[in-house]
Amino acid sequence: MDNNHQANHQPHVLIFPLPFQGPVNCALKLAELLCLSGIHVTFLNTDHIHGPLLRHTQVVSRFNTYPNFRFETIPDGLEHEKPVSGDRFIEVMEAAYAVSQPIFREMMVSGRLSRRSERPVTVMIPDACFSFAVDVGLETSTPVICFDTVSPCCLWSSYLNLPTLIEAGDVPFKGDDLDEFIKSVPGTEHIIRRRDLASFCRTTDLSDPAIQLILKEARTAPQAQGLIINTFEALDTVILPHMRKLCPNVYTIGPLHSLHKSRVPMSPKTTFSNSVWKEDRTCLSWLDNHPRKSVLYVSIGSLATMTITQLIEIWYGVVNSGKPFLWVRRPGSITGEYDESQIPRKLLDRTKEIGCIVDWAPQEDVLAHPAVGGFLTHSGWNSTIESIVQGVPMMCWPYFVDQQVTSRFVGEVWKLGIDMKDTCDRLIIEKAVKDVMETREEVFSKCADNWANLAKESIAESGSSSLSLERPINCALKLAE
Ligand code: UDX
Questions:
Q1: Atom of ligand 1 lying closest to residue 154 CA
Q2: What is the dihedral of CA 180, 182, 188, 189, to 10 degrees?
């Protein structure tokens, strides 16, 4: 067999994640697991997310150790160096569609991408939101397995069923009762109220760009050969049987960060983190000085923002709960101009006494720290599943997209915390923190420990997620034959 023939028949997966911190982080973990199985991986980033990632030299040097891994970039026409927050989500997606989409198609149709890595792409793993990648897969006869990093409960209830919701008249909203249960989505009839649907469903206009984007995903995702999601079988029993009727090959490989950690060999000096921002690890020593389960961890992830009024309400709620707190205040996460003179003295003084504020934390290590007893979160899916594995109960303040659905599942289905959706009131926040970390601590902890054990079982050698990971790997290997 000549060298060319061998190169042509080696599995080569192209991963194309959504250009945001959370999805890129997840996709890198999947990429590393595929590399370890001997699969060649090209990781395609849009320009504006790749710049910050390159500065995280530890991540880049770790991936450079894999001879079967390479980064590629694709233009998106966006201004670089601007921090992207949730309010620019649609702008980033529109840029990907307007600028990256035709270049991507050309790369694949001309074989340019395959030539650059000297072997043809045998399988594409784009984010399911990049529906154009599924179309390009069909056009070029390249098998596609979508990877969706949003919460599966949202993927099912609000993405894949968006056409159903529209047909049933549940979306767009017409000033209807937000507490009414949504009966049109199979499996969640007694769980999801109108207010729990993904944030983009709150529109009154079907031509809304977010609705149009998700409708495209709902159309193309079931056409892919498979769908990878970051959950484990036991966690999503409510929706998985329904999802599999639409997309038969659903691969549940979560909690992905734990599966990754259990498989990737690391020296004590290396980090598992693929965070595109620099983590302030000093907060771990601060946590070391606190008793078990005493600290409240506060973070709203990489995209959510809050106004100064919301900041002050949340701050009061946190301070008045009396719990020591570690708070991630990502630069740019407070909208509008403000200075310290606007912050009440009490908040600043109490923060000096019982608080620790950092720009960006090593979140997985924070949640694993024994001192952390509760997580005030925006209910981003990565944060939620990271908290589930560590058995940390949550107080949920969802911001957008899937977070409205996730926080409902946290409160109603998994009984892992309190959903504070659509409120931002210091008294509600104080009560939620006290409920979760004091009054009902035992109940929440028991539930949280149970889910944490099930999560760990799923990534054990013959656990459901380990077995599920083999399926796309085998698919990639088989398709290359
Ligand atoms: C977004 C959406 O918000 C989320 O709902 C969707 O499911 C995925 O894309 P993001 O807002 O960043 O992601 O939230 P989340 O999914 O929770 O991801 C945040 C990631 O950043 C987590 O992996 C978390 O560990 C990490 N993080 C967060 C840090 O490393 N340090 C921090 O200080 C805060």
A1: 7
A2: 80
